[in-house]
Every structure is written in structure tokens, then in C-alpha cells.
Design brief:
327 residues; 4-stranded parallel beta sheet; alpha/beta; elongated; 16% strand; 12 strands
Length: 327
Amino acid sequence: MGDVAKMAGVSHQTVSRVLNNHPNVSNNTRERVEAAIARLGYRRNTAARSLVTRRSRTIGVLACETGQFGPANTLLGVEQAGREAGYFVSIASLREVTSESINDAMAHFSGQSVDGIVILVPHPDVLAALRDVSVQMPIVAVGAGAGNPLKGASLNQRLGARLAVEHLIGLGHRSIAHISGPTHWIDAAERIEGWREALATAGLDADVLLQGAWDAASGYRAGQELLQHDAVTAVFVANDQMAVGVLRAVQEAGRQVPGDISVVGYDDQPEAGFFMPPLTTIKQDFEELGRKCMEEMLHQLEGEAGSQDQIVDPRLVIRATTAAPSH
């Protein structure tokens, strides 16, 4: 940094201000310092800087179930938001959720001197295991839902489910089934409640509830069972992968989507617009979720109160798998 200051003809403190994007630096001075940095190939020594600031500029992320679309994209959103905020991200992915595995991950993060920890919470087992773990640093939970003791950020799963079902009701459907994910998942349980709430508001019965396992095969099996309910004219499926299986089951039975049955998925995976027919679904903003998560983390690192839980709303994407009922 001293070499940069000497070449640019400024003080050591001015170089520091430029590196930290301080506003009280003239454009001319900033340009000289940046030119010297580029010419000298200067890079910050993060280890030395952490000794001065007592910050490693590293956030630990504790994740599980990352083979699923939601947790995987939540992890990517948090990682991207961390980098944008100037933090390295260290990831510990759990094969199984136990107090021992979480303790091991926390010890790993402690050894890296992380500034805080983000915990992805796909199901309540994570919160239960955390009760036996002592952590002396800021923690932000992602996807833990309402009523948990940790501050954090969540996607509004109930709203997404209501948007899906209200769309179908608006088209004239009166018997709307739901194929859920595993009910011990927080997201699956919230989407079930949103489905029920939307039907109850419209004075309709929530009488056809089937369960899948997030994958296309379970969606296919649930789709075959769904077709035994003759009165059903529409189905809200808890994710796009299961919706693929439903589409196949309907087509193999010689019925049409949306002519005989309308289908709404959830997630808006990149392939959803290329299904046959293109899938109406609920889009989740994982990038915004990551940003909200890092906002809460930065509040805690600065000793600020922050909010109890930051909520990100999904939106409906209408494509070709929904239409008015034909009977």
C-alpha cells in the first residue's frame, strides 16, 4: 500500500479510502490511485487486514439437501450476495442433520474465524439439532419459516401457493388437487397451507391431497392416482420436477393438458418454459433471498437490530398448462 501511495503521490490513508470506496476522495485522486494499483498489481493481504479489523470477511454457510432445486439455488443466491457484499463464503454441506454433524461444521467455521454463519433450514430437524449447539457469533437462518427463534430471510411459500390456486380458481376450476412435497419439509408444509387457505377463501373443499418426494417419478405416480378423481379439473404441484411426472401420467392416460386438467408447478426451473406444454408455475427470486439474508447478517455484524424475518414474495408465471375447465 505504501508503494501505491508513493507512485500516486498521495498518503497511505488516501489509498485506504480508495480501496474502501470512501466518498471523500476526488475523481482525479481516485483515478491516480487506481492506475497505480493496476500498474503495481497490488492486492490486499486479507490475513494482515483481518488482524487489524478483527474481521476475516468470511461468512460460513451451513447447508443440507443441496441436491434439491430450492436449497441449491438458495445456496447460490447467498453465495452471490456474500461476494457482492465483499465477503468470501465458506460452505459446509451436511450429509445428515444431527447435533454432532452441526457441531463439526461449527468447529470448522470457528477454525476459519468466520464473521458469521448463514444456516439453510429446509426442514425442522436443522432447528432441533441447533438447540444443542452453542455458537458465539451472528447467525442468520434462511427458509426457517415463521415462529423460529433465529432472525433471517424466507421465501413466502404460502403466498406462492395462494397465487397458484387463485389463478386456477379465476379460470373457473372448482375441484383443485394438490401434490405436495415431503410434509416434513418446511416449504412443503407452507405450500399445503397456502393451497388450503385459497380454497377456503373461495368456499371450496381441499379434499384431494397427494404426496410426492420432489422428483419426477413421484410426481408421475401421484399423477396416476390423481386421474382416479374424476371431479378434479386442476392440480397445483409443489415443484416443477414433480409436475413433469404429472404431465407424463396425464398424457399416457390419453388425456390433455390443459384441455382435461390444468397443471401449475412451483419454482420456475430454467426448463419449465420448454416442457410440453410449457408449464405455468410460481417463480422464486433466490437472488433477492440471498440479498435479504446478507442484509440481516450485516445488521448483526454492525450490532444493529435488523428485522425479525425478511420475506421475499414469489410471482406467478402463466404459460400453456392452465386454461378454463372443459366440463
